[in-house]
């Protein structure tokens, strides 16, 4: 847990950065789930839920502890982001503000590949898979699987194949 929090601090070196709060509470919640002592886990679980509600209210970012995230996930503008608890997010994923990763009436959620960029206001809904090296344009609504190396734009999302982009890596502030 502490190594992951240190990595997030390297990404967001300001203690007042909202994304650092979101990831710290997320990592704490993941750590609490590994506890075996019933009494300790019960107390820490209640602490997690209080912290999660507080941070969610302040930052408007919903990142439940059940979400599986890879290395170097980056919330670029932490504002109005909602992520379904069953979502799986790969490595080096960038998420802009007002993004929703959610379900479509069932309890199924998207799987996001590696090196994916999700633009502002995008909605990825349902039990779909987003391939590696995909860019999802601002305000796009994605309702179907997206193969690797594509660009998705529009409502509903139109897939443009063989999209080549520069690999991006988050630089600390």
Summarize the structure in words:
This protein is of the alpha/beta class. It has 2 domains: 1-63, no CATH class; 66-166, 3 Solenoid (UDP N-Acetylglucosamine Acyltransferase, domain 1). It is 28% helix and 20% strand. It contains 3 helices and 15 strands. A 6-stranded mixed β-sheet has the order 3-6-9-12-14-15, with no helix packed on it. It has a 5-stranded parallel β-sheet with strand order 1-4-7-10-13. Helix 1 runs antiparallel to helix 2 (18-33) and helix 2 runs antiparallel to helix 3. The longest helix is centred in the N-terminal third of the chain and has 22 residues, at 38-59. It starts with a helix and ends in a 13-residue tail after the last strand. The model has no long low-confidence stretch (mean pLDDT 85).
List low-pLDDT spans: none
**Biggest sheet record:** 6 strands, mixed
Structural class: alpha/beta
| Name of the level-1 CATH class of the largest domain | Mainly Beta
CATH fold-type name of the largest domain:
UDP N-Acetylglucosamine Acyltransferase, domain 1
Strand proportion = 15-25%
Radius of gyration computed on alpha carbons = 16 Å
User: What are the secondary-structure elements, in order, as H or E?
Assistant: HHHEEEEEEEEEEEEEEE
Dominant shape: globular
Helix content: 25-40%
Give the overall average pLDDT.
Answer: 85
Counted by DSSP, the helix tally is 3
Q: CATH H level of the largest domain: which superfamily?
A: Hexapeptide repeat proteins
Distance between the termini: 22 Å
The overall number of domains is 2
Spatial strand sequence of the major β-sheet: 3-6-9-12-14-15
- CATH architectural type of the largest domain: 3 Solenoid
